[in-house]
Amino acid sequence: MAIIKPFKGVRPPKNLVEQVQSRPYDVLNSDEARAEAGDNEMSLYHIIRPEIDFPIGTDEHAPEVYQKAAENFAKFQQNGWLLQDNKEQYYIYAQTMNGKTQYGLVVCAYVDDYMNGVIKKHELTRKDKEEDRMKHVRVNDANIEPVFFAFPDNEELAKVVAKYTSNAPEYDFTAQLDGFRHQLWVVDGDEDIATITAEFAKMPSLYIADGHHRSAAAALVGKEKADNNPAHRGDEEYNYFMAVCFPANQLTIIDYNRVVKDLNGLTPDEFLAALSKNFVVEPKGAEEYKPVALHNFSLYLQGQWYSLTAKPGTYNDSDPIGVLDVTISSNLILDNILGIKDLRTDKRIDFVGGIRGLGELKRRVDSGEMKVALALYPVSMKQLIDIADTGNIMPPKTTWFEPKLRSGLVIHKLS
To answer: Which CATH code is given to the segment(s) 256-377?
Structure first.
């Protein structure tokens, strides 16, 4: 069963939250972080993207860059841009996108639950990315950014959320870049805190929706601290890491699409002919075409859109991994035809979150940077949970959640 606890969040004063908050570290590059931070010395990018405080071109993984993150974290606290709450409590974080609001509980999840599989994964992680985040957690002695969990629907938790969100939030702002609204409430009532803890204790599993590398890094650093502490008791703050947990029924996964640099030596006509072996290929002209159902794909090539529908017998509906469109496209198009064997390491392929729209796929092909684009129908939350429950792992770059969690609203110190 899932073990969670309240914590003394470190967060901005109400009047500074919009200056401090940022997008997550992994949805933008150094140049974008530098531009977004601009001359705002309170921007969290100085902690999560500290290379922006160095000359352009500085290695973001250099030891001095990690150390700068810790110096900036200390500076933010000394200057009162981040303050620690006096009481262990939970928080409610609401995000509104396109008129739809989802309500998450900000909690501390248990490191051992990650290790023993109560917290379920659906993606593989890369050791280099794990180590990057581990260094960041170690040097700051804190979870600066949360991970994103889903949990089974729960009426008692919904009642607690409704009670607090009927009042004015502590934070309430609309992010300028994407127009999404973000709100935060503090759950400080002792009975409500106890209810949240107890309701999570009834859940057999929590599910990582987004943030597999952050989850792994946070848990591994927590275990590392326990192993290195001869006086370890088990109730230290490092035994927990920060997560925002949303009811699964409120979450939506959007498409995660592919662009490829070449046709593996084939002409466009040869490529289309190869596709027709396993797909019904239908030209759609110059107008954008979006996949309409599972096993239907959208292809953009030489200024034209095509509908690809996988033929019966090319996939196995009883296989939770084999039935995924990302598996079908990886096996029958990217591997068999284009020769891309490993989605995580091959430099010929790149990935585009569906939030950018089909226009971004068209732009990257029309520019000559890429030769062909492939759009997929999104995975469902049910598919994600079924795969996690059966201990399976999705192929790389399968899920894209929006809206992304804003960073800097709450931080968790490990000591």
So the answer is: 3.30.1760
